[in-house]
Structures are given as C-alpha cells and as structure tokens.
C-alpha cells in the first residue's frame, strides 16, 4: 500500500458524536484503546471516504442488543449482588457472626461497597480512556472475585471491611464505569428502552441472589456461599467483558475533565441534592428490609424473600420509568417517582407489620425506589447540557459517595437508640421527599430557561428542541433567567 493512502487514512477527521451525550449517555465511559493495525482492505476503504463525512449513526439495535444483555448481566452481578447484602446483614446481626462486632460496623460493610464504587470512578474512567473498555472490565472482575473469595476466609470484622466492603466496591466501580456508557452508543430512538432493560439487570440480580444467598447460607454455610457467588460472578462477568463491544473509535468519543465550576450553578446544586437525598433513602431501603423482617418476627427464609421481592419490583419498574420519561418529561418523571418512593415508605412501610403487607410494600416501593439510577443521566443533560454531562456525572458519583457510606449506619443507629424501626422509616420517607423537592425546584428553573430560549430564538415552545438548545454555548442568559424565576415556575405544568 502506498504512503498516500496511509496518510489519507490518518487525516480522516474524528468528530465527536454529540448524539452520544444524549439523555441516556452516562459520563463514565471513555475511549477504548485503539488497535495498532488494520487490514489493508479496511484502510483502502477508509481512505476513499470523503474527508467531510461524519461518524455513522448508531445502528439502533443489531449487536447493540447483545451489549444491552451483557450490561444487564454485569449490573446483575455487581449492583444485584450488592443488593443481597441485606440478607448477609440480617444473618450477621442474628447470629453474631464476628464476635465483638457492633451493628454499626456491620452496616458500614455494605455502605463501603457503594461508596468505594463511586470514589473509584475517576480512576476507572482513566483506565477506560487509556487502556480500553475490556481492560477496565477485567480489572473489575479481578477485584470482585478476590473480594468474595477473600470474604469466605474472614474471621474478624476488619477483614470483612476490606473484602466484602472495600474490595467488592472497587470491583463494582470498575465494572460499572467500564459498561455504563456502552448501551447508548448503539441506539437512537430505542435508547431509553434499552437503557431501562440494562439497568433492570440490577433488580433481577438482586432478586436471584437474595433468594440464592439465603438458601446457600442455610444449607452449605456462609463461607461456601461466598465462594460460589465469587465463582459465578467471575464466570458471568468475564463472558460479558469478552462479548461487549464499544463504538468509541467509530464515534471519536472523548472523556471530559472535571469542571468544578459547575458547583457555582444553583440548578446543578439542586441536581446534587437530588442524588444526595435519594441515596440516603435508597441505601437504607435495600439494606434494611431483610433485618426489619426479622425484627417483626419473620423467619430468615421470609426475610430473604422480602429482600428478593424488593429487587423484583426494581426490575419491573425501571424499564417503564426509562420509557415514559421521554414522553412525560424527564425531570417530571424523576420528581413524581421519587415523591412516590417517599410516600410509600410513610404510608405503607410504617404499617407493614405482617408478611403479606410487607411483601406488598416491597413490590410497590421497589418499582420506584431506584428512580435515581434510571434518571440520573437524562436529568443531568437537562441541567448542564450535552457537552457538560460527562463532567457533571463524574462529579455526581463523588457527591453521592458520602450518603452511600453513612446512610445505613445512620439507620441502624436510629434503631439501636430508639428500639424501633419507626425513626428509620420516617428518615427514609422524608429523604425521598426532600430529593423530590430538589427536582420540583429544578423544574421551575428549567421552565424559565426554556421560556427564555424560545423568546431569544423566536420560536414557540413546541418548535424548540430542548436538548439541542441546552447544547448551545450561548444559552447563559436563558439559564440566568431560569434561576430568577425558579420559585415562580416550579408548580407550572410543563413537559420538562
């Protein structure tokens, strides 16, 4: 092949596909490592392409469905496995597994796994950009497998901190960061639906492993339960890491740096409030229900079923939330579902003193409990625009590390001091309502911003493309107007 064709291939533009940063694009996926060699036929084909040709549109399906299934399975074997910690916690508390350990220390084990997954996201983003998606995923596989196998040999609480807490969280973080940006790269009009299916994997995983963990602990003991979970997680996550394909090279994806200047925007602070309060409530719910079941006199088997049904509710609820957010309004949907999470905790969970009522709550409450994880990426785009969404989400993962760490310890400390779960139930409900309040104020800002953009562009609201508008670098004036009218507009009905 002559040098001219090689040079032509090198000179092809690599434009960024802004469509990737659409509502369902999450920030934590970066560039994969580029291959060092290509087949001569491929190089000749690329050399013959017009220089002005942009990246091709996503296939909107095809192999994307394989990637969606793989991401769903990874979610099942990270967040889903982590959700089963409620079963472990109930067992630890009921059997004094590690003599001398307090309920507060047991609570920190589960919380550490989530906070470490969030805190490691900048490092995992770097490895994705420099070494590629598959490398990041396999690092996560190694950490997670080591954590579960290591926990099976733990004989002191500090060893559980390091294994089931920190090490598992690191593995979950690398797997989450490496996979979360893959699905949106393959879809356009079906993006919300595919994203909903992928995120529902955590609920299905929680359902299966809450039941499986409870059964294994009773029949083969705690140590072998950990080992079997480690072997299964290693096998499934490794297969998914091999099958997943990103489109980073095709679309020229790049990872933006952190922009701490976003914290100067009131609307972004409200976005952080949404995440902060949501995680304070969500972590309590997923980790406490099994122990609450024991507290009202249910058996260990019934407690594991309660935890499992909560995750079933999440699996059933997440796809519709993702699907309807496009038609009902992304901020509207997030606010309504988050408010319902708090309402259900206050009017159903508090009065769930029997097995049947508690199961009813786990289904209904579970369907809306994980609203944050379904809506965080779409809402971030509404708040900061397409270009700043990656940085906004990278910062958000760090913000929610704090409530992820301390929410369950706070909940169990309330129980220990009061001798009742009522304070914890009230705490959960009001935290969800506080998160919904942040979204209501945020929608007031968004309505004002869109009204001002429509005026500046001389368009009606129906004609205004809200997503394209927020990608405009010249909309600072509209954002400022939105901030001034935040309280006035927050209760107006509008699709936002």
TrEMBL record:
It is found in: Membrane. It is a multi-pass membrane protein. PROSITE patterns: MFS. Keywords: Membrane, Transmembrane, Transmembrane helix. The chain crosses the membrane at residues 106-124, 136-155, 161-181, 193-212, 224-244, 268-289, 334-352, 358-381, 424-445. It comes from Baudoinia panamericana (strain UAMH 10762). InterPro entries: MFS, MFS_dom, MFS_trans_sf, Proton-linked_MCT. Coiled coil: none annotated. The keyword Transmembrane applies. PANTHER family: MONOCARBOXYLATE TRANSPORTER, TRANSPORTER MCH2-RELATED. CDD domains: MFS_MCT_SLC16. It holds the Pfam family MFS_1. Its main location: membrane. Residues 1-21 have a biased composition (Basic and acidic residues). This is Major facilitator superfamily (MFS) profile domain-containing protein. GO terms for cellular component: membrane. Residues 1-55 are annotated as: Disordered. Residues 267-496 form the Major facilitator superfamily (MFS) profile domain. The keyword Zinc does not apply. GO terms for molecular function: transmembrane transporter activity. SUPFAM superfamilies: MFS general substrate transporter. Belongs to the major facilitator superfamily. Monocarboxylate porter (TC 2.A.1.13) family.
